[in-house]
């Protein structure tokens, strides 16, 4: 198929997805429990945008001519890798589908994608729309199944040429090992995080409170880049804690299909129990429970928006990924200290910085060992902007021009010239 045809199919698919936003958003809410409005107004439009972005790339991917020494004509060919195996998690099923499938198809690969066992529905629906858009059979294959069986089969398959994984750091280690033990397929990993959200003394406190709230609580706290360590300068600490507590107490929790609901249930009983265990550990280790701390109501996997203050770096709520609606607030005195403490993590996915001082913003953004820095904003995602982690938050970058490299093989073609003077 020509690159232009690939581009047109992806564009047609994006149009169909847009037309079916209601159905897809409802599937996301049924599967995952996330607020329907969030899926319909934010996630599906972002998914559509991402496919349109990569449709634009399909016919603009090409190699180079290289001015090599000697009587040679040298060019590089950018070829598809082949069969891309992709394993995605349950927190943003459609968005994760797009980050994986968009660049893989734009570059001319075929795909076998395994959805998370908790959230299989939307990708199956999307595959049907791809078929309607004209994608030939066999190009995009969606497998529903469990991790240790279907996921592991994909990671260790000898005829899968590339693996892209998003999920926990522990599972990332497993799939990397399976890939290396089988055919050494290249692996990109987008894993866990414990991102710092740093509120400096000159920050607009009200804005920082609101953004730190959504940085943690968005999607029931089930975000790899959740700003789950809120560092606040001692001069604004008391005011910040008071306002953060009030904002959490105001959060609307309930039926995710209802208008105006900010927080639905956690995805399943495992996550629900794990988060309650983390909250108990926070209380036992001496953090101050400002609000929340228990299940919300008596039915379903709802958890009260929870805020801890007086959190210390060695507490497990400050070190481990909670993946739930739990804010941990830590106090700091100066920049050097907060840089060291923010970087003192095995993760390095993202960070938020709140300041109006240019020097402070520059110093922090250069010093932090993370893949994304948001200054006076948080969770700003754009199809063209790369995303990925330092350290044990993963390797490789997704989105933007960077993701194309994950799905291309570069071939150097060197031709001897008969008449070098021309
Ligand atoms: P979580 O703990 O948040 O569910 P996981 O990393 O376990 O995160 O899951 C992310 C994805 O990885 C899911 O699609 C899951 O099925 C898959 N997965 C889990 N275990 C394995 C495994 N051993 N091999 C391959 N994939 C796995």
TrEMBL record:
Keywords: Oxidoreductase. The active site is at residue 190. Residues 1-413 form the Aldehyde dehydrogenase domain. The keyword Oxidoreductase applies. InterPro entries: Ald_DH/histidinol_DH (IPR016161), Ald_DH_C (IPR016163), Ald_DH_CS_CYS (IPR016160), Ald_DH_CS_GLU (IPR029510), Ald_DH_N (IPR016162), Aldehyde_DH_dom (IPR015590). Gene3D superfamilies: Aldehyde Dehydrogenase, Chain A, domain 1, Aldehyde Dehydrogenase, Chain A, domain 2. It holds the Pfam family Aldedh. Belongs to the aldehyde dehydrogenase family. This is Aldehyde dehydrogenase domain-containing protein. It comes from Salix suchowensis.
């Amino acid at each position: 198929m020509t690159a232009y045809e690939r581009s047109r199919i992806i564009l047609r698919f994006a149009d169909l997805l847009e037309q079916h936003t209601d159905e897809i958003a409802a599937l996301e809410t049924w599967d995952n429990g996330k607020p329907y409005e969030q899926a319909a107004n934010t996630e599906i439009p972002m998914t559509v945008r991402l496919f349109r972005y990569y449709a634009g790339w399909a016919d603009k991917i090409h190699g180079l001519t290289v001015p090599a020494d000697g009587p040679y004509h040298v060019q590089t060919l950018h070829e598809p890798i082949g069969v891309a195996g992709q394993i995605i998690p349950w927190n943003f099923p459609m968005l994760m589908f797009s980050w994986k499938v968009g660049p893989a198809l734009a570059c001319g690969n075929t795909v076998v994608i395994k959805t998370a066992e908790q959230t299989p529905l939307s990708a199956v629906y999307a595959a049907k729309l791809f078929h309607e858009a004209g994608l030939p059979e066999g190009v995009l294959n969606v497998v529903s199944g469990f991790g240790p069986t279907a996921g592991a089969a994909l990671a260790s398959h000898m005829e899968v040429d590339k693996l892209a994984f998003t999920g926990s750091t522990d599972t990332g280690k497993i799939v990397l090992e399976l890939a290396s033990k089988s055919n050494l397929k290249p692996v990109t990993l987008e894993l866990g995080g414990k991102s710092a959200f740093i509120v400096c003394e000159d920050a607009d406190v009200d804005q920082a409170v609101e953004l730190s709230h959504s940085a943690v609580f968005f999607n029931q706290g089930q975000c790899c880049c959740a700003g789950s360590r809120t560092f606040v300068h001692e001069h604004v600490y008391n005011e910040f804690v008071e306002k953060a507590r009030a904002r959490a107490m105001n959060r609307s929790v309930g039926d995710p299909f209802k208008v105006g609901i900010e927080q639905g249930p956690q995805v399943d009983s495992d996550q629900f129990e794990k988060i309650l265990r983390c909250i108990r550990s926070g209380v036992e280790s001496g953090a101050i429970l400002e609000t929340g701390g228990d299940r919300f109501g008596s039915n379903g996997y709802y958890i009260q928006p929870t805020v801890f203050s007086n959190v210390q770096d060695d507490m497990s709520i400050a070190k481990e990924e909670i993946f739930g609606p739990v804010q941990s607030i830590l106090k700091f005195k100066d920049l050097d200290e907060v840089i060291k403490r923010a970087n003192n993590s095995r993760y390095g996915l993202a960070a938020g910085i709140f300041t109006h001082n240019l020097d402070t913003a520059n110093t922090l953004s250069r010093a932090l060992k993370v893949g994304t820095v948001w200054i006076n904003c948080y969770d700003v995602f754009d199809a063209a902007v790369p995303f990925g982690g330092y350290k044990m938050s993963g390797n490789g970058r997704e989105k933007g021009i960077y993701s194309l490299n994950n799905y291309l093989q570069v071939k150097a073609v060197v031709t001897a010239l008969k008449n070098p003077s021309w």
